[in-house]
Amino acid sequence: MRELHDAAKAGDLTRLTQLLDVPGCDVEERYVGQTAIHYASKGCHTEAVKLLLDRKADVNAKAITGWSAIHCAAERDNTEALALLLDRGADVNAQAAKKISVLHFAAFNGRMAATTLLVAKGADLHAKDEDGYTPLDDAKYRGREGCACVRDTSDRQWEAVAAFLERLLTLEAAERVAFAERAWEVCGR
């Protein structure tokens, strides 16, 4: 039912509710390899994400690329949806193709708020993708290469994410969480 995906992508709660109320509606149906929750997360429509979760959407459903809704929210720096997904059981260390974790996505895209929230929720700072890169490597090196592809990311954001991750690597686990939670408060989230 492509209409379900279109409604999720648009954040149209009225239409989404109507479609979900149709007998036999499959909240896990895929369109172009993704479920409706992927489209809602990519579109930064937190209320649509919530509605889909309330209707039993799989919080950890994987697209054909291995992305889950949490990857979509982290890439967009949609911390409201990210927090909701995590609270509903999303895997903070979910991996897409090539073992790319959610924290890799946030760091690569210079998403400071998402990076901070993920670390506070226990994301693995030392996770390595198939090429052996950590999220810090992505923030420092690969992120700059992709900078031109990301419209709203400045060099200062890349540097902030890299500095944040470098600082966290020197801390013990409990200190990391406290540091990340404090950074989260400072961000005003």
Description:
- With 189 residues, the protein is an all-alpha fold.
- The protein has two domains: 1-91, Serine Threonine Protein Phosphatase 5, Tetratricopeptide repeat, CATH 1.25.40; 93-189, Alpha Horseshoe (Serine Threonine Protein Phosphatase 5, Tetratricopeptide repeat).
- 56% of the residues lie in helices and 0% in strands.
- It has helices at residues 2-10, 13-20, 36-42, 46-54, 69-75, 79-87, 102-108, 112-120, 135-145, 155-169, 173-186.
- The longest helix has 15 residues, at 155-169.
- The radius of gyration is 17 Å and the shape is elongated.
- The N and C termini lie far apart (35 Å).
- Pfam families: Ank_2 (PF12796), Ank_4 (PF13637).
- Keywords: ANK repeat, Repeat.
- InterPro entries: Ank_Repeat/CDKN_Inhibitor, Ankyrin_rpt, Ankyrin_rpt-contain_sf.
- ANK repeats lie at residues 32-64, 65-97, 98-130.
Query: Which H/E pattern describes the elements?
Result: HHHHHHHHHHH
Q: Tell me the quaternary state.
A: single chain
Separation of the first and last Cα atoms:
35 Å
Q: Please describe the biggest sheet, giving its number of strands, its sense, and whether it closes into a barrel.
A: none
Strand content: under 5%
The CATH topology of the largest domain is: Serine Threonine Protein Phosphatase 5, Tetratricopeptide repeat
- Helix percent band: 55-70%
Count of extended strands = 0
Mean pLDDT: 84
Give start-end ranges of low-pLDDT stretches: 144-153
User: How many domains, in number, for the residues?
Assistant: 2
Rg on CA atoms, Å:
17 Å
Tell me what the CATH architecture of the largest domain is.
Alpha Horseshoe
Shape verdict: elongated
Instruction: Return the CATH class of the largest domain.
Output: Mainly Alpha
The number of helices is 11
Structural class designation:
mainly alpha
Keywords: ANK repeat, Repeat
ANK repeats: 32-64, 65-97, 98-130
Pfam family, one: Ank_2
InterPro entries: Ank_Repeat/CDKN_Inhibitor, Ankyrin_rpt, Ankyrin_rpt-contain_sf
